[in-house]
Design a protein that fits this description.
alpha+beta; six-stranded mixed beta sheet; binds flavin-adenine dinucleotide; FAD/NAD(P)-binding domain; D-Amino Acid Oxidase, Chain A, domain 2; eight-stranded mixed beta sheet; 317 residues
């Protein structure tokens, strides 16, 4: 703690990638930190992500050069610091002239290769999908493709090692412990947490409070902190489907959909493929979220436009 009795510098609500990362960063800067997570670390969105450490190739189209550059630089940092859970992956992008012209894709990939000080990952190359083995699962109508680098990560472990490192730097990390109330009191936050196993409630005072509750962010603002904020966060759902892997090799694929969105088709575990995402507004409770039938159909349709395999609903695991 900070030496002011039971006052901590920072109280973090939520043990996802944001909460754990913030706790680690703050503890590393010498701040006293408490993190509480109502379930287990990474039990929320952070174990259900696309599992990529990437710069966000598609954001270049929206002129988000700075965002992409920062993400690419961070990709190198992460690859350097946690190579046991983050590894390079090649992505094959079959070119579809109907969606984006080849020159635009080429410029995007050139920038992607050069914006972020890429050191360890191989550069982009052009593929003849008729002759390259990576083109074998792709329909004959798609003759040309591009292959570029990004990284795959074990997302839940990334959260856990951040939380462990935060704890090693002095942070107190409580799992199965919900933050149940937070109020301003004499210039500080008075924060109540409840141990889900024993039911015991503890109150601590904190100089700053971080709401890293992911999709529960509104619940923390409204119910836990008792605020009537007008700035409601809009939730968006991005669903994946898992199917048996239907191509040879370790590469992933990225396809452009008719609606200009891109869909990732990534090798997952040993013999599965993780396909996603959708992107639709969501208004329900975070714990009730599930892929809708229409989302599954949307993903299957996008895949079947490009791949010979012809996925059906029966393939979805
Ligand atoms: C490796 C990785 C790669 C990613 N790649 C992408 C990407 O390419 N593109 C993209 O857009 N996003 C990406 N994401 C982001 C991801 O999909 C989510 O946006 C992200 O995981 C959200 O993290 P979070 O910590 O904010 O929320 P969560 O992981 O949902 O964590 C919030 C936590 O708060 C806890 N909580 C809620 N209420 C309370 C309470 N009252 N008291 C205590 N605890 C509470 C929940 O139980 C939950 O564990 C990636 C994430 C990871 C980890």
């Amino acid at each position: 703690m900070s030496g002011d009795g039971d006052i901590v510098d920072l109280f973090v609500i939520g043990g996802g990638v944001n909460g754990a990362g913030i706790a680690r960063d703050a503890a590393g800067r010498g701040l006293s930190v408490i993190l509480c997570e109502k379930d287990d670390l990474a039990e929320g969105t952070s174990s259900r992500s696309g599992k990529l450490v990437h710069g966000g190739l598609r954001y270049l189209e929206y002129y988000e050069f700075r965002l992409v550059r920062e993400a690419l630089i961070e990709r190198e940092v992460l690859l350097e610091s946690a190579p046991h859970i983050i590894w390079p992956m090649r992505f094959v992008l079959p070119h579809s002239p109907d969606d984006r012209p080849a020159w635009l894709v080429r410029i995007g990939l050139f920038l992607y290769d050069h914006l972020g000080g890429r050191k360890r990952l191989p550069p982009t190359r052009t593929l003849n999908l008729r002759t390259a083995p990576e083109g074998a699962p792709i329909k004959d109508a798609f003759m040309r493709g591009f292959e570029y680098s990004d990284c795959w990560v074990d997302d839940a472990r990334l959260v856990v090692i951040n939380a462990l490192d935060a704890a090693e730097r002095g942070a107190k990390v409580f799992t199965r412990t919900a933050c149940t109330a937070a109020r301003r009191d004499k210039g500080l936050w008075s924060v109540e947490m409840r141990d889900g196993r024993t039911g015991v409630k503890t109150t601590v005072r904190a100089k700053a409070l971080i709401n890293a509750a992911g999709p529960w962010v509104n619940d923390v603002v409204n119910r836990v902190a008792g605020q009537n904020s007008k700035r409601n966060v809009r939730l968006v759902k991005g669903s994946h489907i898992v199917v048996p892997k239907f191509w040879e090799g370790r590469q992933a694929y990225l396809v452009q959909n008719n609606d200009k969105r891109v869909i990732f088709i990534n090798p997952y575990q040993n013999d599965l493929a993780l396909i996603g995402t959708t992107d639709i507004p969501y208004e329900g409770r975070p714990e009730d979220v599930a892929a809708e039938e229409s989302e599954i159909d949307y993903l299957i349709k996008a895949i079947n436009r490009y791949f010979k395999r012809g996925l059906t609903r029966g393939d979805v695991v």
